Amino acid sequence: MASTLAEQKKENLLNISMQATEEEREKSIALNTGYNKEEKTWELIVKYNGAIAELEKKYKDITVVRLINEYAILTVPEHLVDLIAAETMVEYVEKPKRLYFQLAFSKSVSCINSLQSGENNPNSLYGRNVIVGIIDTGISIENPEFRNPDGTTRILEIWDQTIIGTPPYNYKIGTTYSREQINQALKATSAQERRKLVPTSDIQGHGTSVAEIACGNSGVASKSDIIIVKMGLAGETSFPRTTQLMQAVDYVIRKGIDYQKPVSINLSFGNNYGNHNGSSLIETYLDDISNYWKTVICVGSGNEAGGATHTSGILDDNEEYIVEFAISEYELSISLQIWKSYWDEVNIELITPSGKTLGPILSTNQINRFYSEKTQILAYYGEPSPYSVMQEIFLDFIPTKDYIDSGIWKIVLIPKKIKNGNFNMWLPAIGAINVGTGFLNPNPSMTFTIPSTASKVISVGAYDAYNSSYSNFSGRGYVAQIGGETVVKPDIVAPGQNILLTGGGKSTRVTGTSFATPFVTGSAALLMEWGIVKGNDAFLYGDGCEIIGLNQRKPRLYGGPTGLVQFFLLNM
């Protein structure tokens, strides 16, 4: 067993993952992410202080990818994880999580057209000399939306994390392609020759659609430069990880520094694992790096409000509380998180669809194992982290054979001593579960996905531009940030329903906060052009932005991340 210090410096999910057997991990999507069975190593996110090079010298078998502001991605043999966590320079350790991917009329209602009324208009804004960073499923380089009138590309660089080759900077994965290489490929006379020169692609099309809205020729920032990161393992059954996302953001910002251009970054995906209070390492990392260079990060709030993946309640000292949730047929595995105040003492039991009672779940630092007809349940009580006093009880449902038991399950919360009483529960994001799986009494509040919960990013929800109403699927709620500040999310909404895309010679309609976010990303690029590139406000980025009206309108002042785009989307 790890020491108490190492246990508390590792997140709950990592502790239970390391205590689970290899067979249990293989059956669990949540537990297995980040583990390499062949090498018996873990990919870890680490917040550290001091010189991490000392750690590399001490442990020769680890590899370290340094990120900005004392964050790092480590690959660590399993037998060294507890030793690494116990090191004084290591503040906290998390395992990666899977991420799930969530025009003319829409530009008009967003007031973008009025900003682009003539090429010679001194107030026309197109994102010139600003980099739009699209971190997604890749891009189609042939698409005319991303080419200049002479046929050359507007893309500065592509980093494809899925293609083995020469990695950028100190990263261990992927291959980069320069503007020169892309232009050479575009001159190729055949698709086969083009793919040989630049083999990266966008099979899903999600990243290309996002880029078309944010920075395509018919999109918002139509004159901006573009940097693309295709995140690893973005396929039908395998998803990119938070570690790849952190490296991608780090890469785009470093490139912005290299080119000496401000950067507007688009993140159109997220996950449900965590307390949604801004305290995980992916959230604190994005907050930290938002203050680095001339950077704005826009993140979709997710599409969870229309599902049934969150519920909440208030416990009373003298009354049991029962939460019901359905598991549909053919569900391979699901996890469920219960988050409560650490000071509240609660016994927990499970009732299976057949009526069998399992439990109580013991509040130890060991895995509780229970068995239903076709399901094994792993349960684990977490400890407070250095960043949060909330306590997590993690339940993982894995099959004993093919699928877990379908039907109505019940969680019985039995209060022992209650001081606060509030609790929240989350299931995985709707992209990770079957239709029909969900809470029977869901709560659409606090349905934004992580990392849109970070306080210094611009969190973007979706609205229906055709009837000017908030989209019922769009994540919303509030975030109780570190230090007690309560932040309402999302920061802003943009068109995200039935968006018409016409790039590449095909018409497509898309819906979701994935496609609302690039409207804001592109708008941020326009505003950075006005402020930074044109010299109207050199500090127009990050969390401390101040907006003054243009076109002889009455000056208005906005603070915080919302202000960066409110000027365009709300006041023009």
TrEMBL record:
<keyword id="KW-0645">Protease</keyword>
<feature type="active site" description="Charge relay system">
    <location>
        <position position="206"/>
    </location>
</feature>
<dbReference type="InterPro" id="IPR034045">
    <property type="entry name" value="Pep_S8_CspA-like"/>
</dbReference>
<dbReference type="InterPro" id="IPR000209">
    <property type="entry name" value="Peptidase_S8/S53_dom"/>
</dbReference>
<dbReference type="GO" id="GO:0005615">
    <property type="term" value="C:extracellular space"/>
</dbReference>
<feature type="active site" description="Charge relay system">
    <location>
        <position position="136"/>
    </location>
</feature>
<dbReference type="Pfam" id="PF00082">
    <property type="entry name" value="Peptidase_S8"/>
</dbReference>
<dbReference type="InterPro" id="IPR023827">
    <property type="entry name" value="Peptidase_S8_Asp-AS"/>
</dbReference>
<protein>
    <submittedName>
        <fullName>Subtilase family protein</fullName>
    </submittedName>
</protein>
<dbReference type="Pfam" id="PF18425">
    <property type="entry name" value="CspB_prodomain"/>
</dbReference>
<dbReference type="GO" id="GO:0004252">
    <property type="term" value="F:serine-type endopeptidase activity"/>
</dbReference>
<keyword id="KW-0720">Serine protease</keyword>
<comment type="similarity">
    <text>Belongs to the peptidase S8 family.</text>
</comment>
<feature type="domain" description="Peptidase S8/S53">
    <location>
        <begin position="441"/>
        <end position="529"/>
    </location>
</feature>
<feature type="active site" description="Charge relay system">
    <location>
        <position position="514"/>
    </location>
</feature>
<dbReference type="GO" id="GO:0006508">
    <property type="term" value="P:proteolysis"/>
</dbReference>
<dbReference type="InterPro" id="IPR023828">
    <property type="entry name" value="Peptidase_S8_Ser-AS"/>
</dbReference>
<dbReference type="InterPro" id="IPR036852">
    <property type="entry name" value="Peptidase_S8/S53_dom_sf"/>
</dbReference>
<keyword id="KW-0378">Hydrolase</keyword>
<dbReference type="InterPro" id="IPR015500">
    <property type="entry name" value="Peptidase_S8_subtilisin-rel"/>
</dbReference>
<feature type="domain" description="Peptidase S8/S53">
    <location>
        <begin position="127"/>
        <end position="305"/>
    </location>
</feature>
<dbReference type="InterPro" id="IPR050131">
    <property type="entry name" value="Peptidase_S8_subtilisin-like"/>
</dbReference>
<feature type="domain" description="Csp protease B prodomain">
    <location>
        <begin position="8"/>
        <end position="97"/>
    </location>
</feature>
<dbReference type="InterPro" id="IPR017310">
    <property type="entry name" value="Pept_S8A_subtilisin_clostridia"/>
</dbReference>
<dbReference type="InterPro" id="IPR041365">
    <property type="entry name" value="CspB_prodomain"/>
</dbReference>
